[in-house]
Amino acid sequence: MAVRSSNPALNEKVFSVTVPPMAGTTERRSTMSLDGVVQKSFLLLAVLVLTGAVAWNLTPRVDGAVRFPGWLFIGLLGGLGLAVLTVFRPHLANRTAIPYAICEGIVLGVISAAYEWRFEGIVVQAVGLTVGVFALLLFLYATRIIRVTENLRLGIVAATGAVMVVYLVSFVVRMFGGDVGFIHEGGAVGILFSLVVVTIASLNLVLDFDFIEQGVERGAPRAMEWYAAFGLLVTLVWLYLELLRLLSKLRK
Fold this sequence. Notes:
Strand order of the largest sheet: 1-2
Radius of gyration: 19 Å
Number of helices: 8
Distance between the termini: 46 Å
Strand content: under 5%
Shape: globular
Order of helices and strands: HEEHHHHHHH
Helix content: over 70%
Low-confidence stretches: 18-27
Number of domains: 1
Oligomer: single chain
């Protein structure tokens, strides 16, 4: 059966990537393991959290208000560039995953500081909800309460694509001075939209779990553990940001 994920970092072609052995060695490369993915995922999360804490403390505050620093764009552009590079060159994940986590830590640290300034306590709530959603879906997947069928997979992929299109349209509209209010504002429609997006982001975790499991079963190269951990981090970052957006709308 084909293995697909709506996460652009995790697609079927990845586990067919051939990773050449290190120079001077003739041993066959060991295969990917679940423990390896877990360990690398925790490492990337630790790097992201540590960098985020530093960025939070370094974010300038003028008259009590948060100001976006110029070095935020280093994280934004660096994270985007590293993500694109890793998606197209999966075998480089062991070199790009940690720098990507650092860049995302910079971005999340600054954004979290801005949200916390406006809505005290919101970051703790968003972090708690992200951890809770992750644990719940991992439990539901591990116990097979949620089974990844082809219809479910296609539905999540289509829904994720639709969300990306809406965000892209919103970005273009805002460039020309307009706005798509229901995305950014509070109110019933805005809250409902965020709830839908949070649900879609959460379900992407299920596809990620399934994809990683399939990679382990198919004996993917051990080097792909870094790529699988990177892909999971992409989803977690998206989920956290959407939860921040939803909670801010509820506070409004």
